[in-house]
Design goal:
Radius of gyration: 24 Å
Structural class: alpha/beta
Number of helices: 14
Number of strands: 22
Strand content: 25-35%
Helix content: 25-40%
CATH topology of the largest domain: FAD/NAD(P)-binding domain
Low-confidence stretches: none
Largest sheet: 7 strands, mixed
CATH class of the largest domain: Alpha Beta
CATH architecture of the largest domain: 3-Layer(bba) Sandwich
Shape: globular
Mean pLDDT: 97
């Protein structure tokens, strides 16, 4: 039986990053992956393929709606969905092949098969051909990620009633796509098909979309999606059932007044979140505790109640984000090497890759009000940005929340062009506990989208923005 210092179960962003960092620190490392390709949900059926389709659909949308204004005359473009899907598959393959290269570069032993605990130091790997193999490991990091959730009474047939996985490989552009859930996944995939010509109806139980983010972002994103695409939002609606017959899907729900509502379409995307993927790991055999939602319980060091067994990413508490899992993978690896790393969970940014993009870090206004914290607000609209006007991306704004007494930045909330990249400036500033004045006095290249961050900070600290 081969022996390892550290074994990582799961090769998503958390798992493969943890394995690489362990190997860099001198540990003999193994990585176990159930599927043939490395990269987990994010690289294979999540972040990467969805962004590839988002980019392709945005190019098409601009060709139809904006090229003429830019002085570009072309024949009416047509959607070649098969080619879009093929390009997406190529991006996924290239990215996953890159992970294979990194495993070899760092001399990480990769096992393909389903890993499960026999004892806390013995892991069995069940392979696709029916054979089994066991390895011994001093420490183990569980990084098995998550899978799509559903609702009671909904049967996902993967043909007309689908999850995000099937939405990435459709053979046709839906005429009317019904999305159950107004969160990140639903709005991103809804944007893909909305740009390609689908009518999109979002059925959401809460009173707003992207409910975990700042209320101002929710309101603005809903406004822009309704303005630019054929989006309809049914908020405060509870789904009671989904039926599929032939090419028609019928979603039944009740509204805020408890009245029945029926929505008919040709596809229904169930996007009500994700749940930890821990089935078949043998956690019960070694006594690892999970909570009532199936998440593995860990301490401040991300160690489970069983010594030497750690868990990271979507299988534990916190936001289900690839970059959060990556930070946790590095955190565990460096602890095992005797280092003292840290993670500030309040500074893990969240992003929605619609267009305009939505990005946020730190506290929302709602949270600060709940805490009774006195704060200042500074904001700047992209319609006042020269760079945004040049690119015809004037929807949205940057909002900065700062401590009323100290001016320390407490939260930054953006909706607009390239805010997924812009939010890094806010994370950096907040990691070093910068004040709004600090950022407002830093030189920002002109013309850039990031000037809007500076202007919002000027507004927060002294109510003296330059360009509004």
């Amino acid at each position: 039986m081969e022996k390892f210092d550290v074994t990582v179960i799961g090769s998503g962003p958390g798992g493969y990053v943890a394995a690489i960092r362990c190997a860099q620190l001198g540990f003999k490392t193994a990585l176990i992956e159930k599927y043939e390709t490395l990269g987990g949900t994010c690289l294979n059926v999540g972040c990467i393929p969805s962004k590839a389709l988002l980019d392709s659909s945005e190019h098409y949308y601009n060709a139809v709606h904006h090229f003429q204004e830019h002085g570009i005359d072309i024949k009416s473009p047509k959607v070649n969905l098969e080619q879009m899907i093929a390009r997406k598959a190529g991006v996924v393959k290239m990215t996953c092949d890159g992970i294979n290269f990194l495993m070899k570069k760092n001399k990480i032993t990769v096992y393909t098969g389903h890993g499960s605990f026999v004892t806390k130091n013995t892991i069995e790997i069940a392979k696709a051909d029916g054979t089994k193999e066991q390895i011994e490991s001093s420490k183990t990091i569980i990084a098995t990620g998550s899978k799509p959730s559903s609702l009671p009474g909904i049967e996902i047939d993967k043909k007309r009633v689908i999850t995000s996985t099937e939405a990435l490989v459709l053979k046709e552009v839906p005429k009317h796509l019904i999305i159950i859930g107004g969160g990140v996944i639903g709005l991103e995939l809804g944007s893909v098909y909305g740009r390609l010509g689908s009518k999109v109806t979002v059925v959401e139980f809460m009173d707003r979309i992207i409910a975990g983010m700042d209320g101002g972002l929710s309101k603005e994103l809903q406004r822009v999606l309704k303005k630019n695409l054929e989006f309809e939002f049914l908020l405060k609606h509870k789904v009671t059932g989904v039926s599929s017959k032939g090419k028609e899907v019928v979603v039944t729900a009740t509204n805020a007044k408890d009245e029945p509502v029926e929505i008919k379409g040709d596809y229904c995307l169930v996007a009500v979140g994700r749940k930890p993927y821990t089935e078949g790991l043998g956690l019960d055999k070694i006594g690892v505790k999970v909570d009532n939602r199936g998440k593995i319980e860990v301490d401040d060091h991300l160690q489970t109640n069983v010594e030497g067994i750690y868990a990271i990413g979507d299988v534990i508490k916190g936001a289900m984000l690839a970059h959060k899992a990556e930070e946790e993978g590095v955190f565990v690896a460096e602890q095992l090497a005797g280092q003292k790393p840290h993670i500030n969970y309040n500074l893990i940014p969240g992003v929605v890759y619609t267009w305009p993009e939505v990005a946020a870090v730190g506290y929302t206004e709602e949270q600060l009000k709940e805490q009774g914290k006195k704060y200042k607000v500074g904001s700047f609209p992209f319609k006042a940005s020269g760079r945004a006007r040049a690119s015809m991306d004037t929807d949205g704004f940057v909002k900065v929340l700062a401590d009323e007494a100290t001016d320390e930045i407490l939260g930054v909330h953006m909706i607009g062009p390239r805010t997924a990249d812009m939010i890094a400036e806010a994370v950096t500033a907040m990691e070093y506990r910068a004040s709004a004045e600090d950022v407002s006095r830093m030189s920002h290249a002109h013309p850039t989208f990031t000037e809007s961050m500076k202007e919002a900070c000027l507004d927060a600290t002294a109510k003296r923005p330059i360009h509004i």
